[in-house]
Amino acid sequence: MTPIGTHAGSGRGWQSGAVKRLAPLALAITAFTGQACTGGLDTGPRGPTGAGGRDIDRPITCDSPVGSSAPMRRLTVEQWQGSVRALLGDTAVGGSVVPAALYRRGFRTFAEANEVSADAAYDIAEASFAIAERASADLPGLMGCTPGPGADDACASEWIARFTREAFRRAPSAEELSTLRGVYSSLVSEGYTPREAASSVIEATLQTPQFLYLAERGVSGGDAGSVVATRDHDIAARLSYFLWDEPPDDMLAAAADAGELHTREQIEGHARRMAEDPRAAAVLGRFVEDWLEIYRVRGAQKDAATYPAWTTIVDSVEREHLDFVEEIYMRGDRRISTLLGAAFTVGDDSLADLYDAPRPIGGFGRIDLEPSERAGLLTRAGFLASHSGSSESAPVVRGATILRNVLCVDIELPIGLMVSSPSPDPSRTVRERFEEHRSDPACGGCHEQIDPLGFGLEAFDAIGAFRMTDEHGHEIDASGVLARTDVDGAFVGGAELSARLAESDTVRDCVARQMLQYAEGRFLETRGDTAEWDQCAFEPVRARFEESGGDMRELLIAIATSDAFLARRIPQGVE
Amino acid sequence: MTVYKHRTGAFTVGRRAFLAGTGGVILSLPFIEAIHGIAKAAPSQPRRFVVWHQGQGTQYDQWAIPGSSETDFRFGRILEPLTDLRDRFTFVYGVDNKARALSAGDGHVSTASSILCGMPNYGGPSIDQVVFERLRQPGHRSPLHLAIGRSARTGRFLTGPNARAESVGNPRQVFDSLFTSTMGSADELARIRARRGRALDAVRDSFRSFRSGLGAADRERLDRHEQGITEVETRVTTSRECAPPTLGGSYDPLADWVRASADMFEISTMAFACDLTPVITIEWTEDHDPAQFAAFRGGYAGWHEEVHAGETRRGLTGLHEGYRYYATRMGEMLRRFDAYPEGDGTMLDHTTVLWTADFGYGGGHNGKSVQVALAGTLGAGVPMGRLLRFGNVEDLWARAQWSTNNVFVSILQAFGQTDTRFGHVGAASDYGPVLEGPLPGLLG
Fold it and tell me: Which of A25, B25, B45, B74 could tie B181 with a disulfide, CB 3.0–4.6 Å?
């Protein structure tokens, strides 16, 4: 057995004074032994996968702190807006946005999804300029003093120090400060007005990597692979963007300034306070949107002839999961089992009509659903319409998404597969047509798991309405089978499927894993040398979520107080 | 007249005649000496490059149907809408995307990561970027990457190893970033440009101080971002007037691909006419997402099933109609270029268009006999209207001698370059080795 968490060389960084405040977690765990479905053909190199990959097949000992290997990651659109608002106010933000994350798997927080291309850099530059011009319109209001005409102005100079400190979420270095003060003084000395010069300081600051990126650094250096404590200010930023999508508030910033934000207890105190705020519910809503790929409903194309009502309900469908999550998180029991199993939702009349349910009191609010038809997020229009075509349901996509995202089963098209799928045939049901490819061993490996799961949702059409017959008039058969999970067995319909998943340990563990990936801004490694580190980072989070009975707030706190937030693993190639 | 000096070179700003219809608005565009004055290649060489990429391959039985010689071929159902442009095309049959054999991931991922860079695993700049680097002139902005469908970074277009270009899907957004008009007098705008240049200098400095403590992988991403700042400087601090295109009004570009593509073609034409860049890519990004798949061929499920079934059931008319849809749009783009007079001929006479589609027969989802067609010009002396056969596209398991890498070498040579290799060279698993050299006969 290889104990992990011991690091290259002497572990210099870890033994530096600042890190002793972390008590190592000693635990022996059995590695994640979930499974991947397999096709029947050749095995070749495999690409990164969302959740799966189960190549660690031996017990692991996690006997020293793990530390985060989170990559440097650009602020998401929401985080960027929150940051500019905190710095300069709502008016300054105006209608400006930065390029959104581009992703089709994973989460909006992922570093890879937020790379800054030349086009993105240009969009950021334009937004920064527009914001700066708006924000500098009232210069005394902005600076809190009135700058004189000189290039070396005390009022301006102090404002630049305050502004960069807030923008960078830490004190700027002398070099950083002098760069931005240089913008002001050189422009004024060339004949620009103080307003123009201040605008350019803002324009520049909003484009700096110090503002745009989250990148934790250790309190000291160390060899690649060694673990060192994270700086207090980096912890503050990580905590507030994780829980609120906003920069640190005054209390958090003050704690970091005072050097009182690095023990588990100190962090937990703030994390608990912040996790009780509605802003944490909003973050959780965004997580759910990415986790279940509900964002696909935005811009989803639905056939107007088949679904004339779609355009009038799409706005309600797009926000349903956010309101539902907020209700469960702020006023409910916060449990994953409730998110996946509740027989009510939150929305307006049009949503109630879609669900054929009594309209909410006052036109918006709680809507009680028919419990035999619908339970939880997987039976809601957002999920169902996102995983459907324009005029027909997509049972294979629905099934695959649940397997991959909710059960953390690895699914990939086998390499070199000559894929063939059933020809369209209105005289047969989708189910009948797909029986064909499941009998082919090359396809059956995965589709035996995917298809019966997706077929269980066939009673929902392409916009999520309940139905008894399909688009060709065939009677719906919503029987399905859960296979190779901890809640295996036959079921009928989405409510039964959801009830099963709501009680699944595999699902609960998968949600913990997904949330940790959301927080880390990357997929956890499941193969290779560093996979064990990630497994050790994950295990205590998983265990704490289990102990809490699947309480989403406790999951957020478990992650916020995990080694990933307290310590940093020194990456390869630090200069 | 005021003269400002900048990192991007000296430029002068003075009163210029406004173009008719712009109403006293100066458009923020990269500055060059004259619209057609520079960036002019030798007359025999193409001056511009377009890469058009759609997903899911094609059906060769209704594509270009070979006859008795390379000039004797006819169009099947799919290409019928291009009949009037037959002699502007050269089709290439029996060339593999060999790098795909070394690339990780399933049929789609391993293809996207190799199809246009000729390397496994997003390993290099794609052909559009390499051509751009050879053609670029001062004041040129980087290639325009356009999407029909949602914006995406699929990795087919790469500005360098692992550096995925973003294909932008909203014509209005593209228009704004290219042709944004700023009100004000020339002097006021010059003053703003100089000020913004100063802010960008500070941004650049801030990158240096941010690097400390970052690992190699983070630094690489930061470097790519910083390279983007150079591009921002070009766009922000230089300017000239140019006629903006007229877009087709208000509609949902995710739903109405016909109008969205027409607008993208219009933007492309004017971007070329203004010489903003010599390279444009057009990528159809919604071929594999049921919810986003616009009303095309009656819905996603049928289309997707047919693509997979295509190799075994050749007669699927629905599949032909789907690919024909793309061909129809291709015709619209080429005719738009051809309608723009330029020099002794038209814009199309000076433009090389590469048309790729991930696969050959979609059922294979592999790199065998992938779709390759070229349109416009390959140089004044190179005859078009040909179909070159290097293998049997109907034999899905044949090992081809030549790879798309060799097509890319030929393209570079068409642009007057002396390259003899592109991307990966050597062994490529069971696809056989990637050879050096151009594709024999492609350039005549």
Answer: B25
